[in-house]
């Protein structure tokens, strides 16, 4: 059992130009006091793994590139096996400001008027107090479509349905650590829809994010258009799977940690 209850998960693929600076920022005492840091080196072909291993943090290497979602799921499995109560996932490109970690962690532990804590806390770029963040035309179209579909399927307004900045409690990450329960490439708006339909308590808080300055995004070139189409089909499939066929609804336990 760990003496820290929070694990920060960083999936990284070919991020040698960004990972070192990110890990240095995570050396801040206020972060080190509350969290352990885990880098999932997802089969990088550059020096990402070497740079990460030169730090004082935990590194898990995938022999092959398995995808962003598989990297996150490896982190969930690690957290489950090592007794963590919470995980916060941030991107290895440095776009997620490390200052978000404490805010998300605090919200995960904050009880509401019924004495219940959220299961999921999303860091949003588009709430009132969020810092302005530029997005491409394709992503703007995606945001509108994803927000609408999530609202139609769940009745919830999610301002930033494609945020990758998530905080999860043990109830959620232990569920998604299970075989075939996570999207290996793009766990995104589809998983937010799923978490809401499965009854997890989901909240959004303002977040600080920065544009990528080095390396190549997994959403570069024509990939955003492919991503939007794939996500649309995936969101609809999630709704059908849960609302019509009730798949996985019995697997979500009621135990609170």
How does CATH name the architecture?
A: Alpha-Beta Complex
Low-confidence regions = none
Major sheet, described briefly?
A: 7 strands, mixed
Output the radius of gyration. 17 Å
Task: Name the structural class.
Answer: alpha/beta
* Silhouette: globular
Question: How helix-rich are the residues, as a percent range?
Answer: 25-40%
Summarize the structure.
The chain is of the alpha/beta class and 257 residues long. Helices cover 37% and strands 15% of the residues.
Task: Walk me through the structure.
This protein has about 260 residues and is α/β, with parallel strands linked by helices. The chain has a single domain (about 5-245), classed as Spore Coat Polysaccharide Biosynthesis Protein SpsA, Chain A (Alpha-Beta Complex), CATH 3.90.550. It is built from nine helices and seven strands, in the order E-H-H-E-H-E-H-E-H-E-H-E-H-H-E-H. It has helices spanning about 20-25, 30, 50-55, 70-80, 100-110, 135-155, 170-175, 190-195, 225-245, and strands at about 5-10, 35-40, 60, 85-90, 120-125, 165-170, 200-205. It has a seven-stranded mixed beta sheet with strand order 3-2-1-4-6-5-7, with helices on both faces. Strand 2 (about 35-40), helix 3 and strand 3 (about 60) form a beta-alpha-beta unit. The radius of gyration is 17 Å and the shape is globular. The model has no long low-confidence stretch (mean pLDDT about 90). This is Glycosyltransferase family 2 protein. InterPro entries: Glyco_trans_2-like (IPR001173), Glycosyltransferase_2 (IPR050256), Nucleotide-diphossugar_trans (IPR029044). It holds the Pfam family Glycos_transf_2.
